[in-house]
Design brief:
Blueprint: H1 18-29, H2 33-41, H3 46-56, H4 59-63, H5 70-76, H6 81-117, E1 143-148, H7 153-164, E2 171-176, H8 184-193, H9 198-202, E3 206-210, H10 214-218, E4 227-232, E5 235-239
Parallel strand pairs: 1-2, 2-3
Antiparallel strand pairs: 1-4, 4-5
Helix pairs in contact: 3-5, 5-6
Length: 244
């Protein structure tokens, strides 16, 4: 005997109760007391608040800050141009009102300050600590010995800083390595290219010298160029280019 399967008919599938759907939809639109109060605060209908709630439970709530207002959320997700304009105008009106409130409070605050302290400044600048200028390592009576070589960008940068403040020191003695001893034409051409005024040389404010082992006698050991020494009286003190 074969197994008989009862035919499936439309009657076998329970009909959907329209009243059940209606009750479910109604349940989703019901607002809590807090939500009703917030909706009233933003002048939103129950339907508008329900849509805002659904949006914030979705991607909008995931990517937006918690401070996003219901008006902005609904405006961002407007379903047509008319709805977008509606929420945009409502948000603009709220911002205008808020700006007026802020301005009114600022004016009240300014008036309160005037009544409390009059024209007296809130901060007495004479009591603020004064930042002292950094102490220069060079005095007017100092001479600087600068050891350089041609085609050295760092050497040229330090030389430029020293020439710019030549009026604040007793003088600058340049010792140039990398040239044949006695090649005075080469050292003069180098000096002119670096902006050394010939009058400074004639006045001994700047001297041009061949290095010729002088650095080794003053700074034993391996040193890198440019190298600076401060001569104060009979005392020689190394300097760094950053200290100028």
């Amino acid at each position: 005997m074969g197994v008989l399967f009862a035919p499936v008919t439309a009657a076998a599938v329970p009909a959907t109760d329209s009243s059940t759907l209606s009750q479910s939809e109604q349940a989703t639109t019901e607002l809590t007391a807090l939500e009703r109060a917030r909706a009233e605060h933003w002048a939103l209908t129950s339907e508008e608040w329900q849509r805002y709630r659904l949006l914030m439970n979705g991607i909008r709530g995931s990517i937006s800050p918690t401070t996003l207002s219901p008006i902005e959320a609904l405006g961002i997700h407007a379903r047509d141009a008319s709805e977008r304009r509606h929420f945009a105008e409502r948000w603009a009106a709220l911002m205008v009102e808020d700006a007026e409130r802020i301005l009114a409070f600022q004016q009240a605050y300014d008036g309160a300050i005037t009544r409390l302290v009059g024209e007296q400044p809130l901060i007495d600048r004479s009591l603020l600590p004064v930042k002292q200028p950094s102490q220069s390592p060079l005095a007017r009576t100092d001479r600087v010995l600068l050891f350089v070589r041609p085609e050295c960008a760092a050497c040229e940068a330090v030389l430029a800083r020293l020439l710019a403040r030549l009026d604040t020191i007793a003088g600058l003695d340049i010792y140039l390595s990398g040239l044949a001893p006695g090649d005075e034409q080469a050292i003069r051409e180098w000096a002119v290219a670096q902006g050394v005024d010939p009058d400074w040389v004639r006045q001994r404010r700047v001297t041009l010298n061949f290095e010729s082992g002088v650095l080794a006698s003053m700074a034993p050991g391996e040193v890198n160029l440019p190298y600076l020494l401060r001569r104060r009286g009979e005392t020689l003190t190394p300097l760094t280019g950053s200290a100028l």
